[in-house]
Structures are given as C-alpha cells and as structure tokens.
Amino acid sequence: MSPVESGREQLLSKAFVGLADTLVDNYDIIDLLDRLVAYSVELLAADAAGIMLVDSQRALHVVASSHEDAEVMELLQLEADQGPCVECFRTQERVSVPDLTEATGRWPVFVAAVESRGTYRSVHALPLRLRGEAIGAMNLFHRQPGALPEADLALGQALADVATIGILSERAVRRGEVVTEQLQTALNNRVIIEQAKGVLAHRGNLSMNEAFDRLRRYARNRNVLLSEVARQVVETDLAADVLAGATVHSKVAHQR
Questions:
Q1: How many CB atoms lie within 10 A of CB 5?
Q2: Which secondary structure element, helix H or strand E, spans residue 182, and what is its range?
Q3: Where are the alpha helices (DSSP H) in 22-149?
Q4: Domains observed in the chain
Q5: Torsion sign (Cα): 189, 14, 160, 132
Q6: DSSP 144
Q7: What does the pLDDT average to over 123-130?
C-alpha cells in the first residue's frame, strides 16, 4: 500500500469513528452533518459539500455546508426548485453531473445561475435515505469538470448512510421522539448557528467561514454541543471567549 493509500485509509477510519462518536445521548444533528461534509470534502477531493434536510412539510432546507459558496449553490437549487440535490432527494437515487454546462436542458434556471457565478463545474448528489425513507441529500461540488470514480461515490454514500442511520436511529424511536421533530430541531439550531456566526464575524472582523471555524473549534475542544455554544454566543458575552480562543472551560461547560 502506498503512503497516499495508507493516509486515506487512516482518514477513512477517522471519519467513521468521528461520525460514530457524535451518536451519543443528546447528540447534535447539526454537528453530525457538519462532520459529514468535512470528511466528505477531504476523502473525496471535493472543493465543497452541502446538505439539505426535509422538514415535516416535506420542504427542503440547507442545514450544513463546508463553505459559503456551497451554501449559495444549495440555496440556488431551492429557489429554482431544481438541480442535482433536489432531484436526488425526490428520486432517492444518486445524481452525478460531470459537467454542469451540459445540463442546461435538465435544470435551465439552476445552471444559468451557476454559470453566472462561475464557481463549480461538476456536482454529485447522494441521498440521505434508509429503508425507502428519504430525509435529504448531500451535494459534492468540484470547480473542475469530471466524473467521480464509482468507488468514491460508494464511499460518499456509505458516509451519508452512517449519518442517516444516526438521525433515524432506533434510540429516537424508543424515546418516543418523532423524526420530523428531530429534523425541525436541527433546522432551528441551524438558525441559531447562523446568528452566532454573524455575531462573531461582526465582532471579530471575520468572514462567515472563519467565524464558523472558531465556533466549531471552541465547541469541539470543550466537548460541548455546537448549538449550545451558538446559543450562548447570541444570548451572552461568550463571543469574546470564543474569539479569544480561551483555554479555560467555557460558561456553557459549567452550565451543563
């Protein structure tokens, strides 16, 4: 095995362990999906990734993205009600588009919007599904045109399946929780996280990506739910602590 292959095997093991580590009592779906997009980008050599989940009304929402550009791509699909991620969710099948410029007839509004931005050329969408139930889809974005090897698509699907199993876990059923309520909580947490990113970006003169990195690092270093940290940033003076990257335990940790 070459050093490159060995490194990828180690990263793959880390990814599955990392995803499994989030599946504890009171786990945060947003944190789970954030890890999923991060591992997918690294393992599949994607430039960005994004995830949509469906709510109780069967409407899709963006809940995780590795980069602002990826979030914009997802929002463009929702606005146009067309695109690879939307189609993937509706059909529950993979959708691979090696060159978006050749998909004008398939999704005219979405492709025109993408071409005007000049960001990504190829997209590969993978369903989040289990036993015939689809709860969303993940998009992998590449700046250059090209197909993904079948092995990479299968790996991406395996990662997505692990996350889906976590969201639709039997544990949730045993506690009498309704899956749609879990997803609604995830969407609500996403709103809080976006607000916290805005606070940190404004106070720290950061980009939204940098603000999210600070927020995520702070939560993981202290083993605190991402949504809990975000809520404290919005409602208290924790923003200063997050921006400073303080080594002391956070107020959130003391309140748990």
A1: 9
A2: helix 179-204
A3: 29-43, 68-80, 84-91, 108-117
A4: 3-176 (3.30.450.40), 186-255 (1.10.10)
A5: negative
A6: S
A7: 93
